[in-house]
User: What shape does this take?
Amino acid sequence: MRVLVVEDEPMLADAIAEWLREDAHAVDVAHDGGAALERIAVHDYDVVVLDRDLPVVHGDDVCRELVGAGVTTRVLMLTAAAEVTDRVAGLSLGADDYLTKPFAFPELAARIQSLGRRCRPAAPPVLRRSGVTLDPARHEVFRDGRYLPLSKKEFAVLAELLRADGAAVSAEHLLEKVWDEHADPFTGAVRLTVLKLRRKLGDPPLVETVTGVGYRLR
Assistant: This one.
């Protein structure tokens, strides 16, 4: 998934981002509400982890902007304001979930996974096609019973191809969902990752290039 972490404490923001990247998410970071709105206007995020007490633009206003835009992005408010009235107020703004500080990283990751499932069409917990089985929870991939040791990027690209269920997926879509904002679209990162994925999947070839469109799984 593509996740935006909006947190004005740099060390905490970086810690959250690194934890989520270990789960193969593409993660961007913003340290104030204004920067968050700039990124939201450019990128299609699945989940925004949003601190409420932000400089420049308050977190509540960022949430209002997102909800008012009618996008499918899910909002998880992450804040030290732990009173029931605070939680009710945050959810009333349109936030989809509310987690108070201090928190456990595994719980945060699990809540983000849950929110991410809501912003996509329903999909089976284990993805299967053409003899390939991908288990997101266990982070395991098999082809015809053979385990495939994929990198995080290869795993995420394969997951997007499986979710497309035979439809073509553009390189732009893969770049948006698998890489973060620091990725250079001209480096050929998508092409190189798909090339490595093809080699690991083995024969007969499964990933097909659709000229002028992108890639699809046979």
Remarks:
- The CA atoms of residues 80 and 87 lie 10 Å apart.
- The chain has a mean pLDDT of 88.
- The longest strand covers residues 74-79.
